[in-house]
Amino acid sequence: MPRVRFPLSMAMLASAALCLSAAAQNALPTAPAGDRAEARAIFKQLIEINTTDTPQGNVTTATAAMEQRFLDAGFPAPDVHLLGPDPHKQNLVVRYRAAGQPTEKPVLFLCHMDVVQALRSDWHTDPFQFVEKDGYDYGRGTQDMKESDAILVATFLRLHREGYKPRRDLILALTADEEGGRFNGAGWLVANHRDLVDAAFVINPDSGGVELEHGRPLLAEVEATEKVYADFQVMAVNRGGHSSLPRPDNAIYELTVALNKLAAYSFPFEMNLVTRNYFERLAQRETGQTAADMRAILADPPDKAAASRLSRQDPSFNASFRTTCVATRLSAGHANNALPQSAQANVNCRIFPSHSPEEIRQQLIALFADPALSVKYVSDAGVVSDTAPVRTVIAPPPPLKEVFGPLTRITQQIWPGIPVTPYMEDGASDSIYFAAAGIPTYGYSAIALERDDVRAHGQDERLPVDSFWKSLDFFYGFTRALGDE
Fold first, then answer.
1. Phi and psi for 79 in degrees, rounded to 5?
2. Domain range for residue 346?
């Protein structure tokens, strides 16, 4: 497919945000002790509910628990909706009503409640127990994204308790299956209950935040675009045989050769206006060889040696300027004493926005160059098909002043002088469903994380306690500001 150029308005996104004073502002007031205790209790409650897409997991247990909190707080029952296509995957949509008849469309806060599976044997703590230790909160979902779920629930409850009357409706959607599964809540709500989630724009805390390096804030990143998620089934099939008569053409061997090719391969270096702007801003905050390499990749032509050094230095840099594909699951064989008749791997790709899943599937076929292998697309629902979607890139949203004005101001109250810049989400999020429906969607969590301590989906996932409190204070001020627009 032809490359898609991002609109020039995106190149102006950072300057539109940074035109506000970067000088230190008055410190943002912290939440009262009672409100902090409530937010903490909600966070703990959500971490300790298993919301994985497994027989042990149940998203509805979590959303129903939050529904009860809203009803107990006095939210009108008609404004609290628990609904979805599966009993275990119910989504919660809560509407905070404006005072009088609003003249502006609502603001929607979008948060997914499901988490990736975690095994107790892999962790040093129980992943489904909330553990505070050495200034960190441990548990599955502490980074992705039950911290933001808890913060937004607590913010809505606090505003309601204080009697706050916004000028426009505020909506909170807590959804299922963002991490995969048959019943993606965001897409289902857009397709089946657009009236409940229709909004002027969406704030999705599943991406964006503050990047730290040894405690020093570098950038406040707002998602402007994101990669395309795709899974592929790579399979080798063979006639098998007796293990006492080994042959080099068995299925495991053929699959291993292909995966070794993939491990050694790098997709081509690419940039767009969003990633270019990101590295321009980051180069101003970095020093030494890192800053020099960032400036070098911005040259025309880009310095490929500098790109290679950055790729080795930090996986997030590598993911910012190329498609990435990696084998994430393996299965093979039917008996210990037999040559395998089949072997398969799941290859997970995060695709640069100018390419489609089908285009990458064809590239994998060419890379493997083995007619004995099949490469098929696997949908989020687990359906395997011979071809993959040909998706067109969704243009980044315009830099709305009503979003970036308060976002920049409140961010700088917490981290004075920090640049606010657009960036490309290396993973994927539910923002795509609202963006495809024509609703501007912005990813920002106000969570501050060290660049080398991103543990989402991984072992011993954790969140600095201080980051939780700062994000809580941010979203209280930000939500009020958006409600007042």
1. -100, 5
2. 228-267+323-351+355-385
